[in-house]
């Protein structure tokens, strides 16, 4: 591709990223102001000055606006950047720290708001298991590329499931079992410092889960 072509492709990607970010920003604002159920896709699209069909090109459902933040994208990009000399789990730990610390405070505010909705809105809570399964597939595919194995190989799938299990253990505290997560301190649980809990959990996994 020519330099001009590369620049044009870069502009398109940046425009797409801005549109996606705008849709998510307006969606979260409308959910906060008038509630998740009362907010329509048409309202979100109008606020972002795009058509409803454009909304669906970025998010398959209204729930996906909440569930699909940039965490998995940044994590995968960071994972691909890690040295091939690192063992897979060490590469995951390094990538997770790098991705986690790349978020700004306004971005963390959005992540926290999405977390609140995920805990409190039944439609979104019901989708959380699907998202966890999707992330297992995403991690398995990234690991398979790194080590030259098939993503459906049992050891690859087990590795991906174990990593996802650590993440769920940190992000789904016991308080979620009661009152739809109303007792969870989101501000304390979702933020830059949480990477230390994740790293500690992955270190336990790396050490063979000594108890």
Search tags:
211 residues, mainly alpha, Arc Repressor Mutant, subunit A, Tetracycline Repressor, domain 2, 2 domains, 11 helices
Explain this structure to me?
The protein has 211 residues and is mainly α. It has 2 domains: 1-60, Arc Repressor Mutant, subunit A (Orthogonal Bundle), CATH 1.10.10; 69-211, Tetracycline Repressor, domain 2, CATH 1.10.357. It contains 11 helices and no strands. The chain has helices at residues 3-34, 41-47, 52-58, 62-67, 71-81, 88-100, 105-120, 122-147, 154-171, 186-189, 194-206. α5 packs parallel to α8, α8 (122-147) packs across α9 and α9 (154-171) runs antiparallel to α11. The termini are far apart. Mean pLDDT is 88; it is low at 175-179.
Helix-strand makeup class:
mainly alpha
Report the order of strands and helices: HHHHHHHHHHH
Mass-distribution shape: globular
| CA radius of gyration | 18 Å
Q: Assign the CATH topology of the largest domain.
A: Tetracycline Repressor, domain 2
The portion of residues forming beta strands comes to under 5%
Count of distinct strands: 0
Low-confidence stretches: 175-179
Count of separate DSSP helical elements: 11
Gross CATH architecture of the largest domain: Orthogonal Bundle
Determine the fraction of residues in helical runs and give it as a percent range: over 70%
Could you give the distance between the termini? Answer: 54 Å
Q: Which oligomeric form is depicted?
A: single chain
Q: Please indicate the count of domains.
A: 2
CATH superfamily of the largest domain: Tetracycline Repressor, domain 2
